[in-house]
Queue: 4 jobs
Job 1
Amino acid sequence: ASMVTAEDFMFKGLNIAGDTSKMLGSNVTQANVMQIPGLNTLGISMVRIDYAAPLGLNPPHTHPRATEILVVIEGTLSVGFITTDNRLFSKTLEKGDVFVFPKGLVHFQQNVGRYNAVAIAALSSQLPGTQQVAMSLFGASPPVDASLLAKAFKIDASLVQRLQREFLA
């Protein structure tokens, strides 16, 4: 039988800047039950999000199992979420400002400042899940039928196929 230790309840690393050199210019460092076994059944987790300047983006996504509360540690972020009746709630946040993203709603953050930005968020699940909207639709494997997406987005099927190639690359 394995014994639970203090290490099962801690995580080191939210002080370390994440690599923002990827195409979107953001990085999420997770501190959930996968990194902290002691969170199992406790219904809470955290992330650190780093945003490159200029315009580092945490793209539209949803957390199917969690509400998120975000605090800006450094920088200036444009944030928002879209309700189920397609209403956008958005704000520009500065250091120390807090914003809430309700469970399951599509939301985003983008660095609109001149310098790199950092935020810390708490989520109301030990494993909130993340579903990126564009990646889900254009990066699915096997791919979603291009004619279906073309009709849904009112765009040409060749553009859908190009997007699918980019997301699957």
Job 2
Amino acid sequence: YMGLPGAARTRSGSPGSSAALPALDGAFLRSPLGGLMGAQAVLGLLVWALIADTTYHLHAAYGWVMFVSIFFWIVTVLFFVTYLLQLQLKFYVIPWPLVLMIFNAVATVLYITAFVTCAAAVQPTSWRQWDYNRRAAASFFACLAMVAYGASTFFSFRAWKGLGSNAATSQVTDHA
């Protein structure tokens, strides 16, 4: 689980504190993956909120953009909370680095399609100027989300492959 902050860390506390809420993983928040996940959540929220505030139901293309942005926003928030609360340590059987890499790669590809769809469907001659402005802004934020998921795919791949570590560290963390 190299490259994922907090993956090899164990918690210690006073006796009887095991029933307490898990500690927040500050190292995750300061890591590239943590920062990018936070950015993805904000950008995804902006995309679907901007589209939802238009008459998107009159244009089939925006249905796809809404699906992609809401689906990946929800799953990203769930992953973010999972890593922030270190819950992935409780489910050690799941290959988290691989799952996160596949998720980010799929999100990148689908956000490419959502960005292109959203940008192509923006029509400057719309009779509702505020719809045009919101859809154009949503296209911009969809592009930023696409880039953020692409960068996360890169960092997730490095974490999955254990790049930047040595054999001794990977032995310790894989069996911790």
Job 3
Amino acid sequence: MTSFEEAETEETVTCLHMTFYHPCQDDKMMFRCLNFCKREQVRADEMAKFGRDSNICHYNLMDTRVSRIQFSLQFYRKLNSSEFCFEIKNMSKKTKLIVDQTELGYLNKIDLPWKCIICFGDYQILAEIQEGESVDYFETHLHLAEVPILQERCLPSLQPIPENGISSSLFPSQGKSPIEIDENES
């Protein structure tokens, strides 16, 4: 047998991709302590903490309006399953944390959806989980957004077009809209 054949099988690693946005990031540089575009390993038994206090939090946000610990993420495996998940907990007494449309008060926690938007104050974070198999650690991969995440992800609401033609509100200058007629109709 060759050394290639005897080598251990490589495990894939769960990776949490997080894209950060704040409207004043260019002026205030609140993300200057985050390590963007490089994956970082976090041990599975450690909690990933985000906040202002660099003695407690590995992911520091340089903003006095951010709590010492804003929120934490715990990596875990579901009971009787091989599926890995993250649990997000609001650690701020003053600021509510919104995960998609769910509002979390102090010490409230929920499972992090595989793709969601986390908001607090003017902060917007797009979180996406890339599944893996490793039980020893997970990775974080941080990105910086140039435009608001909520604006980028929301499509303008379009009025439905009726089956019998085009909505007249789309062409207000035209008096009559074209009408589609089924070939079986007379």
Job 4
Amino acid sequence: PVFAGVNGSAIENFSCVIYNVSLMNCTWQAGRDAPGDTQYFLYWQNPRDNDEMECELYIKGENGRNTGCRFKNVRIWPERAYFLVNGSSEHSLIQFYDEYIPLYEKEILTPPLNISVICTKDPAGCIITWQPPLTSHMEKVNCFQYEISIQNK
């Protein structure tokens, strides 16, 4: 496809991560050939909502240019979310960047909850129990995999 605007003016290295269940950070770098006055704006659309939302809180880089965004109250759906970053400049047209992202692949899970360790002297050893981490979208506890690292001190 042919995009209007200066080649190399669209953002680069776009990346999003979800943490603490419902917070999302997205970051990017300015296009290599974008004019110095270029400002970028992020819009996104969750597949279950038809509303396109602009960034709630921009992260500012040098020269006050938007280089990221923070969202709160994000819900993860199985379908991919749509992201669009467009830019504006008084000197030239800026190419837009868009991407569909499956947000569940971008979530950093919280640690498991209510971890307890009960050790006895008999051969049974120790019993370690926990509950699944908090997440906004995963309802099947058998989807989680855990790794236990035991170190003798």
